[in-house]
Design goal:
By secondary structure, this protein is mainly alpha-helical. Helices cover 83% and strands 8% of the residues. A hairpin with a 2-residue loop joins strand 1 and strand 2. The longest helix has 49 residues. The two termini are 27 Å apart.
C-alpha cells in the first residue's frame, strides 16, 4: 500500500515537473521574442534619429507603404520599445517564479527517491 502511495506521489511530481518545464520554455521563448522586438524598435529609432525632419518617411502596412511624418514613426517605435521592456520585466518575474517552482519540485523528487531506494533503482533501470 505504501509502495502504491509512493508511486502515485512520484507520478504527480513527474507531471508537475513536465508542466513547469513546458511553462518555463514558453516564457523563455516569449522573452526571446520580446528581446528581438525591442532590438528592432531600438535600431529603427536610431536610424530615424539620423534622418532630417523634412525627409519623407513611410510606414509599412502589409504590402502597402503609407507616408507618415518622422515624429509619428519615432513615437511608435518609442512605444514599442517601452512595451517590450515592460513585457520583458513581467516575463522575467514569471521566469523567476517558475524556476523557484522547478527547484521545489526537484527537492520533492529527491526526497521521495531517498525515502524509497527501490523506486530510484526501478526508475534508473527504466531509463537505460
Amino acid at each position: 500500500m505504501a509502495d502504491e502511495a509512493i508511486r502515485s506521489a512520484f507520478m504527480e511530481i513527474q507531471g508537475r515537473m513536465i508542466e513547469t518545464t513546458g511553462k518555463l520554455k514558453q516564457v523563455q521563448n516569449q522573452m526571446r521574442n520580446k528581446e528581438t522586438e525591442k532590438k528592432r524598435a531600438y535600431l529603427t529609432l536610431e536610424e530615424l534619429k539620423q534622418l532630417s525632419d523634412d525627409t519623407n518617411t513611410y510606414k509599412s502596412i502589409g504590402r502597402t507603404f503609407i507616408l507618415e511624418p518622422k515624429s509619428a514613426l519615432m513615437e511608435e517605435q518609442e512605444g514599442k520599445l517601452k512595451d517590450s521592456e515592460a513585457a520583458i520585466s513581467s516575463l522575467q518575474t514569471s521566469k523567476e517564479y517558475l524556476e523557484k517552482q522547478m527547484a521545489e519540485i526537484e527537492t520533492n523528487l529527491r526526497e521521495l527517491l531517498q525515502q524509497d531506494p527501490a523506486l530510484a533503482r526501478q526508475i534508473m533501470s527504466m531509463s537505460m
